[in-house]
Design brief:
Blueprint: H1 8-16, H2 22-40, E1 43-46, H3 48-63, E2 75-79, H4 106-113, E3 117-122, H5 151-158, E4 164-169, H6 175-181, E5 184-187, E6 207-212, H7 215-225, E7 255-259, H8 269-284, E8 288-292, H9 300-315, H10 317-322, H11 329-338, H12 343-366, E9 369-373, E10 386-388, E11 394-396, H13 397-403, H14 406-411, E12 415-422, E13 428-435, H15 440-451
Parallel strand pairs: 2-3, 2-4, 7-8, 7-9
Antiparallel strand pairs: 1-3, 4-6, 5-6, 5-12, 9-13, 10-11, 12-13
Helix pairs in contact: 2-3, 5-6, 7-15, 9-11, 9-12
Length: 463
Amino acid sequence: MQPSDLSLAAAAEAIRTRTLSPVELVDSVLARIEQVEPRLKAYVTVTADAARRAARTAGDEIAAGHYRGPLHGIPMGLKDMIDAEGTATSASSQVRAGHVAAADSTVAARMAAAGAVLLGKTHTHEFAYGLTTPQTHNAWDPDRVAGGSSGGSAVAVAAGAATFALGTDTGGSIRVPAALNGVVGLKPTYGLVPRHGVTSLSWSLDHVGPLTRTVEDAGLVLSALAGHDPRDPASLDMPAGDYWPGDGTDLTGLRVGVPRTYYFDHVDPEVEAAVRQAVEQLRSLGAHPVEVDIPMTRYVQATQWGLMVPEATAYHERTLRAVPDLYQADVRILLEAGELMPAGDYLRAQRSRTLMQQEWARLLEEVDVVAAPTVPVTAVKADEETVTWPDGTVEAVSDAYVRLSAPANITGVPALSVPAGHDAAGLPIGLQLLARPLAERLLLRVGHAYEQTRPARALAPAA
């Protein structure tokens, strides 16, 4: 096993006990990047020299007795929507050509303060406005989509080209690529992680969160990310916390909501079977499955798009008029469509969101977590634009991938995607767990307990 194969928790313990140095770890991960990057294209840019300097600094600090904690000396990727001082934040768009961040975003600053080592910026769908990340290839099958828009971050973690990474999630953009590449993706409660210095797609739906190899790793990263920042108007006024999920697997008394509606409609049979088997695994740990009805399902898609499209267009109003030809066609069309939406439609979407939040709050009084598929189908071929279901229904790929993840963005509840096996083609399947707002500790405890029932996960094949 190479250092690049290690989970964050395992690498952190090796660094803490001086059996592995940050330099050795970073060199190993950079070597993996050189090996897989020509095939997978997870990174916009790799800052190898700066990463090696930061690793040497971390090693010197630790040797001098100044160990900062489990992220100290750990190499990470940063989605190219997130500012890091002195590096470009291109959002994978020609609109941002030549842009260099003048200061760290809040999350980049918190990662630096924790001692994490920045490897570079990972690819996103242009301005995070899409669910495929077309520049990047799936870690398990390069002919298939990576998922998006945090596809570069997910692929880097899945392939050993980053020990962990940060992404953003507006309609599933952390969880979708996590599921399609067999890694863990956490969308925290809305407002728990500040977004100052992060390029916006839709301010009322945007979240920042980690992509990691394990649920334990996600808890370690969230512990360094969470906490109030007044520069983000949506930031919750609460202190940072410890989100380590613990070692236990006893889930006695836990009420697991299993949806009767929505989450298993138009879902691939292999995905459904894997998720239902995961529920049985939770039952074997003491949990009590409870069938539930998901509220207001007919309004999910209209509410998601009714919020996201006008907010995205408002953010891009100036550049859309000044340099429209610099946008990719798919993104430009969506932004232009937002200019045609009546204000009344946006207000109705806001009203729908409020009602949906209220109904989900009632649902999450009946159960502790909801267990469902993250996405209804595994990674499709890169040239496939639609999914055809057995009843003849044809669905756009992006609509299919966002369908099961959007409710958590609309309501702001935390949602975790955990690998739940592979389909017959060897492609990863994701289990999605959702909980009431600010119940991240519970969510991570459940995900970690489930993870302990599974065989140890290997990295995606390097070649």
